[in-house]
Amino acid sequence: MKSDPDGYAWVGPEIGASDTKDYLSKTSAIYGAASGALKTSLHKVLDPNSKYQILKAVDDAPLAVSAAPRQSGLFPFDKFSSAAFLTNAICEDRWNAYWDGNAGGQALSENSDRSLFLLTNARVQKLVRSGDGTAVERIELDVAGQGTQTLALGPQAVVVLANGTIESTRIAINDLGISATGKATNLMAHLRSNLLAKISRKALRKFYPNLPTIPIPGQTEIAAFLVRGEDKELNRRFHFQVAAASLPNQQTDPSYNLWKMVPDTETINQMLANRTDDVWVSFNLVGEMSCAADGGTSFIEKGPITGGDPVPKARVSLVPNDVDQKLWKAMELAALRLAWHMGNGSEKDVTLLRTDGVTVLPKLSDIEKDFDGTIGTKLRDPIGASHHEAGPLQMGPDPSTTVTDLNSKFHHLRNVYVVGPALFPTVGSANPTLTGLALARRLAIHLNQTIGQAKFKQQQLAMDAIKLPADEKKKLLDLPLAEFSTQSSGHAAFAVSEQTFASLAEEARAAELNNP
């Protein structure tokens, strides 16, 4: 994902997660103050046993948020959504079908020339495998509550499970024979906690003297950062998403205006009115949960059929193990210590709060004396509440220890693939969206280079663009697509077609890159 130009290098800019300078100004006083406070305080934060520095770096926040439009006349895209990609692709496919000459310039009366459809209000009920169990040959689904309908798949079709970790795993357990026990292990999520700190401007001015003593009217004050950490003894990573802002009265969330589209000056003036002199700093803590290989015991299993629904449900068990509990406590204590030091360790300058902005926490010395008694689980989100479930259909080269191969295909099935965090062998602490999208793009490229290229060569052969003796031509065209791909690969007669296909693919990539 790091070295492939179609991996993170492509997807990061595409969703806005790599452009950390667009939304947040590095020249602002609040950025300088918060950055200075974080970087200076970072070195004072040790692990729970006070043996080593547990926080590693302060980076710019990779927020998929846009403040500036990509071209004149457009609103900024704000938060990234893949729905726009799907909508654009469907519109482009319909446009191409309409104007490719097959429709004769008339409105389409049928869908024979189209390749991509969105079927709304549809739910897959079952994937039905072939007699030998090596492929899915039809899909049973309910559309808009009209009862079960069947979609037969051609011999060249592939199925891609792209409906989230829980639902994809449910289908795999129920219909694809991935588990004799009806249970898929290696389920992970993120360990999440939240902390607020109210810090005086006086304390922050010690880190950045140019911070105004009061918020300047009409000027936003907001900054965001990513703080990375690692517990060496547990061999686990975590990070803090940190936002700092001056806020109107009654507001306690520093990201209050971070995710908002601001269309006019009246709205922004309302947001900036009646601000307090304190700076609010939020810490959203995200930790790495144990995978199965590290002793993780969470799983998804086949659930009951209830309420007249013909589809067996999924039963999800997310349970942190002992290492997870220790990491959770370690990163919470690190965040509390970091916030305290940002306020110069003075109760006059820093107040620690729960995310309701009302419940005040004890001072740091009291917390350190009795963490379980003073903090306990008060800062934590319920596990699984972040929608970051991952792992039960993990990818890898060994069919005995993984479910899918390195091309995201089920090891034991020739035409079924998966995209999304369900593939992850481990979950890390980072938001899974970037990796999930990069793996989805990787699969799309793989399918294009294999199935797409084979279909192109078949068409070229059928149209006599490739010259072969009649008997050899018929023999090749009668082969299933996978065998045709193998037989034609390296065949001298197909060399020009393969080069042409590669050029077309590169043209499409260039068009995608240049499309605003």
Given as residue ranges, the uncertain stretches (5+ residues, pLDDT < 50) are none
Q: Mean of the pLDDT scores?
A: 88
Individual helix count: 13
Strands ordered across the widest β-sheet: 1-8-9-10-7-13
SSE topology sketch:
Layout: H1 8-15, H2 29-42, E1 55-60, H3 83-99, E2 122-129, E3 136-143, E4 148-152, E5 159-161, H4 165-175, E6 183-184, E7 190-199, H5 201-205, E8 222-231, E9 236-245, H6 265-272, E10 279-288, E11 299-302, E12 314-317, H7 322-342, E13 350-353, H8 364-369, H9 371-374, E14 416-418, H10 433-462, H11 470-477, H12 481-488, H13 495-514
Parallel strand pairs: 5-14
Antiparallel strand pairs: 1-8, 2-3, 3-4, 6-11, 7-10, 7-13, 8-9, 9-10, 11-12
Helix pairs in contact: 1-10, 2-7, 10-12, 10-13
Question: What attributes does this structure have?
Answer:
516 residues, 3-stranded antiparallel beta sheet, 13 helices, 17% strand, 31% helix
The gist of it:
The protein has 516 residues and is an alpha+beta fold.
General description of the model:
- The chain has 516 residues and is α+β, with helices and mostly antiparallel strands.
- It has helices at 8-15, 29-42, 83-99, 165-175, 201-205, 265-272, 322-342, 364-369, 371-374, 433-462, 470-477, 481-488, 495-514, and strands at residues 55-60, 122-129, 136-143, 148-152, 159-161, 183-184, 190-199, 222-231, 236-245, 279-288, 299-302, 314-317, 350-353, 416-418.
- Strand 3 (136-143) and strand 4 form a beta hairpin.
- It is elongated and about 90 Å long.
- The model has no long low-confidence stretch (mean pLDDT 88).
